[in-house]
Q: What sequence folds into this?
């Protein structure tokens, strides 16, 4: 499909995105309203994301487990805000095994309730704490307007659910996870993010504090890319999660939950992608380097292929995720376009002249055309490629960071804020009132993204009402 | 919970099993009828199972992907046998987003239908074949009588779905996977299995051929531990999965599907477990060796703990999954019982005398008491432990194989068959008629397990009717 061109990002950003997801074979529309099929290439990308996160979680004491997909409807009704937040989005099982169920079951939209129920059963004393469990899987939230990866009725994620003895420990956990999410975005996804606290309006249903990481897409809209919530004792009281402390007194646990979902793939597409298609950061790319042999006839082929095979073996042995595109039915030019569409970070071309000169041509996906092309020796190719991949990874982060920083503004007054959020983010003092937040939304469609943890200090005047403000916030239109 | 004893296997095998699963914290009952929670220890075991299989599948060209959890009800009606087989077991979503759905959706009991639908969309020509996709996740089949791991409404598995150009390739795939399943059971799970073909009665709904691996549990009942199906063009015709062959003629694909589910954990429990609890094969055990420091006072503790810490670091660096049980609130004896219950293959005890003598005590889980205990030098402990784990792995397989072989009988007539299947398996000539199969089931509750691929050759007389038979079959009571 790579022979049909994408619309450019400027022509039609929404269509560029949709067609890229389909043509790069990341995902496809499912025959179930609002659902997607994640195709093998997209799933390989997701596996690289999940395995990094899984290792990080395990390194700080988390363990995985699995809770049922179906949750009794009554569980949702135990936490008031939670049920209000989720009931419009539920998929409901009313029949099982040919009979109508006494109580309807909900396909999980998130698992605080059923996990809370089990924690109440498992936790007896302070010795059982903390419990640090992660569940990997999918959840369903009925969506009216869907977009592949960004907003689908079913999506993939991990959900961490932890229970602690004290508020301090729970808060520490919430921030520890937020730091892991930031590290993932910076080091793996090459996406700069802002860590901060959501406003009360934007909080997760049932949480006391919601923190998030926010990233800027190519069209300058914000994407909430991960969240980490502190519940206080809200769910513990609803589900009776109590422990005997060291003084033998019954106490409610403090709980957290947190998630990054498959929408992070949408972020990767929109932060790094260009008019030729996907651009994947080397650390996450399912294929880091694709080798394209170039020959015109059987003689040239028999000269080129042994070199390709030898270099492939060397690269693979060095742990590089490498693939040889040896298709006979398409031209090298077709292959170039095809792998550019799929965002492979590095292309390695080998033709008869390269065989003679003991060289290969390297073409960087992130720098199109001649500028991104270099000719290097076949000697020590794994080291050269590894170095190049590291360079590309750093270049992607630098480029995305520069772009983001150039599009964050500090408007001098409310009039300027209204202009700024048409094509960027506003970083402004805010009095933290719901009224001012609602006014910005009504006037501009921009919402508060988060109140960054990293604050300038001091105080200012709310950009909307002029009252005293102690913290700055990001306003932006968001996905 | 390890302080409360299990019933012995002889006293009450069913209760021994149920209590073991709970006490070893492998799984727990969920607040949804027929569902289970797989607890962290059980899930870590499942992760070791899945990661081995995932690597094997990928090594022979398979890729992972994700298809929706919900499937339109009408999809099931496209393949006649399939809908008959599955409709009594379906969980049905009738409402979504607060409204009644136009068409009910089914929580997937298996994914042939929705994957077939997508394959029809993706496959155009012979160049697109084979497609070799695996999906990891859970499925739901409404069950009336449930048992943790063995039969639950929701269970965990992989489902492989492949499409091929020819019957030969599809058949080859079916057997390739069956070989991987056998290899997994022998090398990883230490469970001997018999590969064979299911009778028509026992076939998967919609398959032309179902092959299986069958294992013998401690109570001599059989457990079908994995299946690999050949569909011929059944699903291709139902879902219109066609390709243009090299002569430009439209052909139906040949498809397969195959699975091992979380019931394999039930097999691990029932094949290797004993009256003290679980016995895990070292290759799959989440914890391969547990270190128990032994001391009576602070002086002894300060002598013992540095040695424990040093040896722990050495074992861990050698890639051994090792844990130190440094709990202060329980005795060493309690810890011994606790880790025996959890089936940890090797216990390493270190007391003050061991510190003096530069030794440690090793206790094998598979050989209780003094016989399984040895004292070894602290020098080169990782090599000693690795060797011991290899020995344990082999011993478990040898023991299970000897037990199985001792309980497979070749009854001389139908009367003897009826006795044999009360406490073992019968390996007998069978005419392959449904009538004889049904008679055995009615008389004894034993079913045909499979017709082994490895046949003696020649021919015999059906054990039931005396007619000519060309293949032998296993009859056994099964889970």
A:
């Amino acid at each position: 499909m790579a022979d049909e061109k994408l619309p450019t990002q400027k022509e039609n950003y929404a269509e560029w995105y949709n067609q890229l997801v389909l043509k790069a074979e990341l995902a496809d529309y499912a025959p179930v309203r609002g659902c997607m099929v994640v195709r093998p290439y997209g799933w390989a990308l997701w596996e690289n994301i999940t395995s990094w996160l899984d290792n990080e979680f395990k390194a700080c004491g988390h363990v995985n487990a699995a809770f049922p997909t179906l949750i009794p409807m009554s569980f949702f009704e135990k936490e008031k805000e939670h049920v209000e937040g989720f009931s419009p989005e539920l998929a409901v099982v009313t029949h099982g095994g040919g009979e109508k169920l006494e109580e309807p079951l909900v396909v999980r939209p998130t698992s605080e309730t059923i996990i809370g129920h089990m924690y109440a059963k498992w936790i007896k004393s302070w010795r059982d704490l903390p419990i640090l469990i992660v569940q990997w899987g999918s959840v369903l939230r009925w969506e009216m307007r869907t977009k592949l990866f960004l907003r689908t009725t079913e999506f993939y994620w991990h959900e961490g659910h932890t229970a602690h003895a004290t508020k301090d420990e729970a808060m520490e956990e919430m921030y520890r996870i937020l730091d892991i999410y930031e590290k993932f975005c910076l080091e793996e996804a090459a996406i700069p993010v802002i860590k901060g606290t959501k406003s009360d309006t934007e909080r997760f249903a049932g949480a006391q504090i919601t923190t998030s990481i926010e990233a800027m897409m190519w069209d300058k809209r914000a994407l909430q890319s991960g969240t980490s919530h502190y519940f206080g004792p809200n769910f513990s009281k609803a589900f009776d999660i109590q422990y005997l402390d060291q003084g033998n007194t019954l106490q409610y646990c403090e709980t957290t939950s947190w998630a990054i979902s498959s929408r992070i793939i949408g972020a990767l597409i929109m932060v790094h992608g260009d008019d030729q298609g996907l651009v994947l950061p080397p650390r996450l790319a399912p294929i880091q380097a694709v080798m394209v042999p170039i020959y015109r006839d059987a003689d040239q082929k028999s000269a080129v292929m042994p070199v390709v095979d030898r270099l492939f073996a060397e690269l693979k042995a060095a742990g590089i995720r490498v693939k040889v595109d040896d298709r006979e039915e398409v031209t090298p030019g077709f292959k170039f376009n095809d792998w550019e569409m799929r965002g492979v970070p590095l292309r390695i071309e080998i033709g008869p002249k390269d065989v003679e000169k003991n060289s290969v041509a390297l073409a960087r996906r992130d720098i199109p055309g001649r500028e991104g092309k270099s000719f290097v020796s076949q000697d020590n190719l794994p080291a050269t490629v590894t170095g190049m991949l590291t360079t590309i990874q750093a270049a992607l982060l630098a480029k995305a960071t520069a772009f983001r920083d150039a599009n964050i503004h500090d408007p001098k007054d409310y009039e300027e804020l209204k202009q700024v959020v048409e094509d960027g983010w506003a970083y402004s003092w805010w009095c933290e009132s719901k009224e001012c937040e609602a006014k910005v939304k009504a006037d501009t469609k921009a919402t508060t993204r988060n109140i960054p943890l990293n604050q300038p200090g001091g105080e200012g005047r709310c950009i909307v009402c002029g009252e005293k403000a102690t913290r700055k916030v990001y306003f932006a239109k968001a996905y």
Observations:
- Residues 303 and 352 of chain B are 7 Å apart (CA to CA).
- Chain B touches chain A through 58 residues (CB under 8 Å).
- The longest strand of chain B covers residues 154-164.
